[in-house]
Amino acid sequence: MLTAYLDEAGQEGREDVIIAGYIGSDEAWDRLLIKWKAALYPRRSVHVRTLRWNGRRAARLMAKLGPIPDECGLQRVIGHVRVADYADLFTELQLRKLVPGYQMALHALINSVLRWIPKHEQVKFYFEQQDVFARQQHVVLTAYSQMPCFKMGSGQSQLAGWAALPKGTYFEPADALAYTVLQYARDPRSERFKVCSPFMGNRWSLGARPTSGLSQ
């Protein structure tokens, strides 16, 4: 069983919407928990959006934290859409109800993950608790759980389940990665992307937009 923890960025806007996080085994997540807390100390938690960006502390912290998921054997997963690319094809009501950016980004991510994992493997997705996205998560994930192309030989879906959980350490790498990808999408030359870039590491990213330069 694989487990993915996901977070989002840019979901409030009409431009780039990102859902991103990491997927891996329980053993990989156990290693991350130990290393992450040790690297954070004496902090108890981190929320990237609230960091002070006008000094060197943020850069030092990102440099310490960014490589940890790779070192623990976790794989980056990214769903990225630019709402402006298709917004003019729909009315405002249709855009909000039928094709919101969050839902489209989630489609991209889930589809990429299920195509990537071995046919005998299952995955469970965890989202940070946000009621505003609960319906969209239910619609997308229910659809994928019923698709014959993602069934194992036993007839079970490769999508084992999903749940929303309160904030916690496992979501912090996803928060940082989603923020990093958003900064890249807005301006890859920006200082904030440079500071956050350790989260992109040297390994490929599953599910990134083909034009973003973040996938291989």
Radius of gyration: 17 Å
User: What count of structural domains?
Assistant: 1
CATH superfamily: Ribonuclease H-like superfamily/Ribonuclease H
Order of helices and strands: EEHHHEHHEHEHH
Helix content: 25-40%
CATH class: Alpha Beta
How many helices? The count is: 8
Walk me through the structure:
38% of the residues are buried. This protein has one domain (2-200): 2-Layer Sandwich (Nucleotidyltransferase, domain 5), CATH 3.30.420. The chain has a 5-stranded mixed sheet. The model is unreliable at 210-216 (pLDDT under 50). The two termini are 25 Å apart. Helix content is 38%, strand content 18%. The protein has 216 residues and is α/β, with parallel strands linked by helices. It is built from 8 helices and 5 strands.
Features:
alpha/beta; disordered C terminus; 216 residues; 38% helix; Nucleotidyltransferase, domain 5
What would a concise description of this structure say?
The chain has 216 residues and is an alpha/beta fold.
Topology overview:
Blueprint: E1 2-9, E2 16-24, H1 26-40, H2 57-65, H3 68-71, E3 75-82, H4 92-97, H5 101-116, E4 123-128, H6 134-145, E5 159-165, H7 172-186, H8 191-196
Parallel strand pairs: 1-4, 4-5
Antiparallel strand pairs: 1-2, 2-3
